[in-house]
């Protein structure tokens, strides 16, 4: 029997980023396992914290006194051995705390909440007892923490030793249950009961027969009532007579938005694959069967049948008795894709979706953990789904930057997927129409295995793309979001009763307010960024910190009334469209119209049922949609992302235009795409126009090589922030000195510079970007720097390290 447990505690600092040793008290001997959460005393006084048991040990090598584990929170591990291993790797490669990595893997409901209880431990006067504690002897800190008057009294009482603060960790996860019944007697005993029944006690007689039929099973009482036609009262009598007992049965909250619609029946059967698809499926299946953790890059334009390849490979994994994980970006986790998987694999599928409630998410997680779901579809964090015996991992739209989490732990789901592939000896399939430069470069070097689907399934050509130069348009026709060309085509589709999709590229773009007289732009008081106009709430909002204020009537700088809106929001475009095409029915899709749960799916359903002629939206409409009646796609402003200070700006623009073009002409009607831009000659736009990924890839690779950017170099970004600008700058200068001294001379250090958005949430940000090919000193040095920034000289400076950053703003 191990006597000691290694526990990683919920105190996220560098100093505590290691396991601590605790005694296992005899009463918990049997329950303590690796992967359970426990409550342990930590630090001074009575403070307790939650932690995870990460290893068990024998006492022999330890001397001195160890504290015992106080309580156990789980009856079985919530982190399985694979995920335990993974969490260690994750903490190391993302420069984050082990404890944060462990929590990241769990559904929200299993994340700790600490309740602070203030308890009376000595005599207090009546005023305190009644006015503050309301006659009880304890009080939740949360109830008074914003009441300074009470707080100061409490503070005094604590000094006098009359009250004490306790930390309690409370577990918020509750499985949803309904009443179940179970027989307490065996078949013969139930028969004996029958013998002593009154002759006309028909209902009780039936109940006895029913109990005999279910043996030792637990059955939901509602189901039992339904089956037998007996009333609840009869079951209560049975309980009183000691025939049965009532016991809670766990039920799963089936996410409503995810129920399949009946007209999808044709999706159930696998399709006859074409030769390219068959080749891809064969190679993937072979890797599954051979336990070969190969990484495939499945490159194929939209509509080339990638999803069908995924589905048939998943089917093979299931046949081998294995499980499968399929990741898609959040915005393409649409009901359409979910339906396709559900239709094929039915109740074997669990879906992890950000619009699930915490309860629903927890239930799906439990189904996976118990092995009741063998196929998981989900967005980024689903890469931690507790599937065991993984046989296949798929990452669709692998180039999407949303696979990288941009807060700690800053993991890249693609890398985590590869880690899990190796651990389980299972292949990983990365799919995309426009692979990231990194992945495609790896395929060129045979690190990944390239599979291609060069043609669209329906032999439909990719739609022709027309590029409209908006500079000419504005000269000729004045300012508008719509070129004459686009308007003519929209009108034409209206006449033909066909549908159109319009995309407004909102990247790096928003509607702001500027004074015409002094040029003052209304900015957030906390952040170095302009406020965005929201017509629905009639306010100006900061998209970074959430600051909100009324729309001003006059310029706060010069008091002029000549203050007006610039830029284009979807709302404004919608208004203009209503004026230009009054007969068109429009559905607008953006963060505002889809914020409410289920709205995303609802709007798409309405559009699919042709309740509107035009779907107008932001990037969120660019992916995964498949509407046969859509024959025109318009991009209103293709180039707003091109000007951003980011080496991936061209790649993102190319990806986006390629994606959105794939929305036109999905069925047998010919589609068409119109791209409006101020940079018609830019190669990202020209190559998207000709659907030429190869050309774009070669051009972009050349530029990346010249500038020493990925995939030729790796990057890491360090950021330091402080409420005072000088302190952030000084901290960064310090760090720069250490890097310069400790790293190879072939490693490039850019900065320190203020971030593009220099101030956010009342803090100033400075950054350093490191570019390197191979530097044996880098990893350890970065950890040392993190460690040091938590000590003396760096008071209140926050330092973060982002490996392979996706954005440089
Ligand atoms: P992608 O994921 O590459 O965009 P899909 O797998 O969604 O492509 O396929 C596009 C369309 O073609 C879908 O409507 C799908 O049902 C259909 N499809 C895919 N493979 C086949 C096939 N082998 N035979 C017939 N139809 C297919
Ligand atoms: Zn702000
Ligand atoms: Zn002004």
From TrEMBL:
Gene Ontology MF terms in the entry: 3'-5' DNA helicase activity; ATP binding; DNA binding; hydrolase activity; zinc ion binding
Binding-site list for Zn(2+) 2: 524, 527, 542, 545
E.C. no: 5.6.2.4
Cellular component terms (Gene Ontology): primosome complex
Enzyme class, UniProt record, top EC level: isomerase
Secretion signal, residue range per the UniProt entry: none
UniProt domain Helicase C-terminal: residue ranges: 550-704
Cofactor comment text: Binds 2 zinc ions per subunit.
Residues the entry annotates as binding Zn(2+) 1: 515, 518, 555, 558
Cofactor: Zn(2+)
Keywords: ATP-binding, DNA replication, DNA-binding, Helicase, Hydrolase, Isomerase, Metal-binding, Nucleotide-binding, Primosome, Zinc
InterPro entries the record matches: DEAD/DEAH_box_helicase_dom (IPR011545), Helicase_ATP-bd (IPR014001), Helicase_C-like (IPR001650), P-loop_NTPase (IPR027417), PriA (IPR005259), PriA_3primeBD (IPR041222), PriA_3primeBD_sf (IPR042115), PriA_C (IPR041236)
Residues in Helicase ATP-binding domain copies: 287-453
PANTHER family assigned to the protein according to its UniProt record, in alphabetical order: PRIMOSOMAL PROTEIN N (PTHR30580)
Family of the protein in this entry: Belongs to the helicase family. PriA subfamily.
Function: Initiates the restart of stalled replication forks, which reloads the replicative helicase on sites other than the origin of replication. Recognizes and binds to abandoned replication forks and remodels them to uncover a helicase loading site. Promotes assembly of the primosome at these replication forks.
Subunit structure: Component of the replication restart primosome.
This protein's name: Replication restart protein PriA
Originating organism: Limosilactobacillus reuteri
Organism ancestry: Bacteria, Bacillati, Bacillota, Bacilli, Lactobacillales
